[in-house]
Specification:
By secondary structure, this protein is an alpha/beta fold. The protein has 19 helices and 20 strands. The chain has an 8-stranded mixed β-sheet, with helices on both faces. Strands 3-2-1-4-5 form a 5-stranded mixed β-sheet, with helices on both faces. Strands 8-7-6-11-12 form a 5-stranded mixed β-sheet, sandwiched between helices. The longest helix has 28 residues, at 264-291. The chain is globular.
Length: 565
């Protein structure tokens, strides 16, 4: 049985293919279109998934969309009517989009796919919940979903058992923890639905001097529920603004202009907003445990990508084990919708656990050579035996060279996990500045992830035996190791850890091991293979282009070592 899951038209468009209960392929459209956060029709991602599965659309048994557009339109129309005439401009902008495609989504999908298949629809937060629980290693778990908004729902609490999921409580729009964080993001002059990471990265540089003001924006109760103080927000009637003038008056300053100087005040607002986000999230998860007790927690929705909060949740709630599906935002809804149909609706037993995210396309050595030949005299390259490739690359990293690393199948989700990565020496205290300024072209405060051999994770990080294969936890770096790996130790002494095993990615594991043999440190600096404003590279040609326009010293493309003349 083949089930095609589709997510598009709102945030990161994606497609996923489930065959006989196994996730065969999944990818975001941005990797193919080269438009970051592309939310349009995921034609490239769908074509790839079908190709990877060795099938055509005629072989697909069910096509499922990750949410219910009629319910979403009902919410939008209801909010705009209730806030008229303040919503007039937003209504005029939204109406053509809905009348053109979104209200007729079934017909649109059938036309794009060239099929008369019936199109199934799952609810947005059920797709989130399924994307976490149904691919988790847990037979039973408490389930919590948190994001901006789906149709009406912004937050759910529930449970999963076997192939069944029940969402028993919800919080509805306009009250949203995700939109609270987006308002902080917008106030700090960053782009909503793209730069929430920047707030998380900036927060450790500040002090919690604005916490009480942030608490005025959102109230939380002992039962875990919360509500925004709508006097300060505008997202329920405006498509352009997250907050109103009262929000700016509360903080005593206007919104920061994009790309302008970031001062101490902005750092403090980021720290305070992150602090209150964590308070609300921890309170909610504690309530979920009281409602549906379990040792296991599954988190999903865009808020589950707040890795700092994830660590606080594990540290401050009774849960012993956490699973976050790495594409926790809307792109992962394509995966969740497909598994929801297969396991929950059709009642098929669960047979798949997500142990890695290498679900995108791979490329042959001849395809890589074609990309290099097309680059002509701009590159020099040589094919190397596996052991020599690993040894030379590890030596380059030891000598503070920065490497573009392109191997195997591309990752699904927002994190590069050793297939499409930029790697560097974590021991050099200047390396963070070098990579941010000369290669990634991004802000000084953005942190880099430590990729550590799983068996050494507790030696370097206060992990307490936790695994973090998808880079979704931010534990403290052990005090005696911070000076040893300064480039991946953030301002607050933490690191966004990726634990690496031989089973998940043998070549990546062996490279870190070779680096450890040379330096005594089983850790590498890992960041995504892209520059600011672009998606992670997908093809060999993307990798070569990124290599040529940045300060990368070497590119390892399969078994080929590439340098610049």
């Amino acid at each position: 049985m083949h089930i095609l899951g589709i997510s598009c038209f709102y945030h990161d468009a994606a497609a996923a293919l489930v065959c006989d209960g196994k996730l065969v392929a999944a990818a975001e459209e941005e990797r193919f279109s080269r438009r970051k956060h592309d939310f349009g029709w995921p034609g490239g991602a769908i074509a790839y998934c079908l190709r990877e599965g060795g099938i055509t659309i005629d072989d697909v048994d069910h096509v499922v969309f990750y949410e219910k557009p009629i319910l979403k339109f009902e919410r939008i129309l209801s909010c705009y009517v209730s806030t008229w005439p303040a919503s007039y401009v937003a209504f005029l902008k939204a109406l053509p989009l809905w009348l053109k495609d979104r209200l007729w989504l079934r017909d649109h999908v059938q036309k794009q796919l060239g099929t008369d298949h019936d199109i199934l629809f799952a609810e947005h937060h059920m797709s989130h919940a399924a994307s976490a629980f149904l691919v988790s290693p847990f037979e039973e778990a408490t389930v919590v979903t948190l994001d901006g908004v789906g149709e009406w729902t912004t937050t759910t609490l529930g449970w999963g058992r076997g192939s069944e999921i029940q969402l028993t409580r919800e919080i509805r729009f306009p009250h949203s923890l995700g939109l609270f964080y987006s308002a902080i993001t917008a106030y700090l002059g960053f782009e909503v639905n793209d730069a929430e990471w920047k707030v998380m990265g900036l927060a450790p540089y500040g002090q919690p001097t604005q916490v009480e003001k942030c608490r005025q924006l959102i109230r939380t109760q002992s039962d875990g529920s919360f509500a925004l103080n709508m006097r300060y927000f505008a997202h329920h009637y405006s498509a352009q603004r997250m907050f109103n003038r009262r929000f700016e008056h509360l903080f005593g300053r206007p919104q920061r202009e994009p790309e302008s100087e970031i001062g101490e005040f902005h750092q403090d607002v980021a720290r305070s907003g992150q602090h209150v986000f964590e308070e609300v999230a921890v309170n909610l998860v504690r309530a979920a445990h009281q409602l549906h007790p379990s040792d296991n927690l599954c988190l999903a929705g865009g808020c589950a990508l707040n890795t700092v909060a994830n660590w606080k949740i594990m540290d401050q709630t009774p849960f012993k084990r956490l699973f976050v599906q790495p594409a926790a935002g809307d792109s992962g809804g394509a995966v969740g919708a497909a598994f929801y149909i297969y396991n929950t609706v059709l009642g098929k037993p669960r047979e798949f656990t997500l142990r890695d995210v290498y679900l995108g396309p791979s490329f042959s050595e001849p395809e890589m050579e074609t990309a290099l030949r097309d680059a002509g005299a701009q590159v020099r390259w040589e094919k190397l035996p596996r052991e020599e490739l690993l040894q030379r690359t590890a030596a380059f990293l030891r000598d503070d060279k920065v490497i573009g690393w392109f191997q195997g199948r591309m990752e699904f989700g927002p994190r590069a996990l050793g297939s499409r990565s930029i790697l560097a020496n974590p021991m050099n205290p200047e390396m963070k500045k070098i990579v941010n300024s000369k290669i990634k072209f991004r802000e000084f405060f953005r942190p880099f992830a430590p990729a550590v051999l799983r068996e050494h994770a507790d030696e370097y990080f206060e992990m307490d035996g936790q695994e973090s294969p998808f880079m979704l936890l931010v534990p403290p770096v052990r005090v005696d190791k911070r000076a040893r790996i300064p480039a991946v130790t953030h301002a607050d002494g933490t690191g966004r850890v990726q634990t690496v095993t031989r089973e998940a990615n043998e070549l990546y594991y062996e490279l870190i091991r070779q680096f450890a043999l040379l330096t005594g440190v089983p850790v590498l600096l890992n960041t995504s293979f892209n520059v600011r404003g672009e998606p992670i590279v997908c093809t060999p040609r993307d990798a070569v282009n990124c290599f040529l326009k940045t300060g990368l010293d070497y590119l390892v493309l399969g078994h080929t070592l590439v340098s610049k003349p």
